[in-house]
Specification:
The chain is an alpha+beta fold. The strands form 3 sheets. A 9-stranded mixed beta sheet has the order 7-6-2-8-9-13-12-11-10, sandwiched between helices. A hairpin with a 5-residue loop joins strand 4 and strand 5. Helix 7 packs parallel to helix 13. The longest helix is centred in the C-terminal third of the chain and has 25 residues. The radius of gyration is 25 Å and the shape is globular. 40% of the residues are buried. It comes from Rhodococcus pseudokoreensis. This is IS1380 family transposase. It holds the Pfam family DDE_Tnp_1_4.
């Protein structure tokens, strides 16, 4: 018999294995859903859609779809990944049952979305309470506000779907608008609200921004009982939010804001009158001077009739990156940008750095697209609105797991692809002993110690009442 020249061992493969679990690390997500009360909240909220003769709880089906998306699924049929592991995931509904539930929820989409959002709000309150110092709302005030980022993205439709339309980038599909709460540099973030819109929806439609902010604020735990928001919440967005209507709304609601602002001829003229000593070096993420970038305030040089009192205009100039094309508003080979804020006091470099950190919102959108948003799979617009809620749930459960179980570890900032490869895909085996079912995780998995530590932290959290 000749010697094998393959790089890999020669194996005899057959389908006779039993008790094997391919995504045993998903128990992290299951425990998170249980410890945050998401499972019971979904079951209670979706009770009106449970038929008397059915054996499947609509809340369980939505939770299972959430897990499938968190594990990398991108269509309803990917729930089969869970169905083949009943010892871990329990009884999972068939594809026709899942499709019928999504159709039933879409038939009364406003009521169904309100029910799902109510369950999300309940689970978020429990998760943030359990997180304590790591919670996004810990010790927030006007000087250190909770930050909500707004941004839109384009989702391509590869077939004719309801309300899909041409986009401003000459594509075809949808233009959802999203609101995220920022977990800061030591964490990721979680979606508070998402609004599905046709592809031709405007980028700077103030009415959509205002409605999205209202939905996002309703998701915050300290607003559930009528708590005041005020300056301890800061709305941050790019220049698409720099409209009269939105800034007037934020001012009326007494919210803090940091919003990109278009460079008008008046602002550019004011910039040109600034003396050199008015420019202060910008800082990087570590608080050190940033080479080739400066900030200044031009509020006192402008007449701003009609704009709210207290609105400050801060500008930035920097050397553009090699190969970048200059715009008409740029001057002397330097890129000019501006933003407005109603934050009183504070060092200009710190305010500018806070605004520039809005770029983390792009990371949140990338995570959404890696968790089911890349291609809306259903035909009906309301069906895809339900799908968007599932995507939000999947991202939230993952973020809560990191916040509660991976504290003070670099894994708290891992994106879904890395979590799936290193933790969720850990293999295991089902063992039964003394009338108990045990999940034996792979002893030689590279990150098994991290996984076991994370599970221990989740198990230590008291069960929700």
């Amino acid at each position: 018999m000749g010697k094998s020249t393959s790089w890999y061992p020669s194996l005899s493969v057959d389908p006779a294995g039993t008790g094997v679990v391919s995504h045993a690390g998903a128990v992290l997500l299951l425990r998170t859903a249980e410890k945050t009360g998401l499972t019971t909240a979904l079951s209670s909220a979706l009770e009106p859609w449970r038929k008397p003769t059915t054996s499947h709880d609509p809340g369980k089906i939505i939770a299972d779809l959430t897990m499938a998306l968190a594990l990398g699924g991108d269509c309803l049929a990917d729930i089969a990944l869970l169905r083949e592991e009943p010892a871990v995931f329990g009884r999972v509904a068939s594809d026709p049952t899942v499709s019928r539930l999504i159709a039933a929820l879409a038939a009364d989409a406003p009521k169904a979305l309100a029910a799902i959002n109510s369950a999300r709000s309940t689970a978020r309150r429990i998760a943030w309470n359990a997180a304590r110092e790591q919670a996004p709302d810990h010790a927030i005030d006007a000087g250190h506000p909770l930050i909500i980022d707004l941004d839109a993205t384009l989702v391509t439709a590869h077939s004719e779907k309801e309300n899909a339309a041409a986009t401003y980038k000459r594509g075809f599909g949808f233009h959802p608008l999203c609101a995220f709460v920022d977990h800061g540099p030591d964490g990721t973030g979680e979606p508070l609200a998402m609004m599905l819109r046709p592809g031709n929806a405007g980028s700077n439609t103030a009415a959509d921004h205002i409605e999205l902010i209202r939905q996002a604020l309703r998701q915050l735990p300290f607003t559930a009982k009528g708590g005041r928001v005020g300056r301890k919440v800061l709305i941050r967005t790019d220049a698409a939010g720099g409209t009269h209507a939105l800034i007037d709304y934020l001012t009326t609601q007494k919210l803090s804001y940091s919003i990109g602002f278009g460079l008008t001829d008046t602002i550019v003229a004011a910039i040109e009158t600034l003396p050199e000593q008015a420019w202060i070096p910008a800082v990087d993420a570590d608080g050190q001077p940033r080479d080739g970038a400066w900030v200044a305030e031009v509020t006192g040089l402008l007449e701003l009739p009609g704009w709210p009192d207290g609105m400050r205009v801060i500008v930035r100039k920097e050397r553009p990156h090699p190969g970048a094309q200059l715009r008409f508003t740029d001057r002397d080979g330097l890129r000019l940008t501006a933003f407005v804020t109603n934050t009183e006091g504070g060092q200009l470099p710190d305010l500018e750095l806070r605004h520039r950190r809005r770029a983390r919102c792009e990371d949140r959108i990338r995570i959404l697209k890696d968790t089911g948003l890349e291609n809306l799979p259903l035909h009906g617009f309301d069906q895809n609105r339900i799908w968007l809620a599932l995507v939000a749930l999947a991202v939230e459960v993952t973020a809560w797991m990191q916040m509660l179980a991976l504290t003070d570890d670099p894994a708290s900032r891992w994106e879904p692809k890395r979590l799936r490869l290193r933790l969720f895909a850990t293999a295991g085996r089902i063992a039964r002993h003394a009338r108990k079912v045990h999940l034996r995780l792979s002893a030689h998995a590279p990150w098994i110690d991290l996984l076991i530590t994370a599970l221990a932290r989740l198990n230590a959290i008291p069960d929700p009442l």
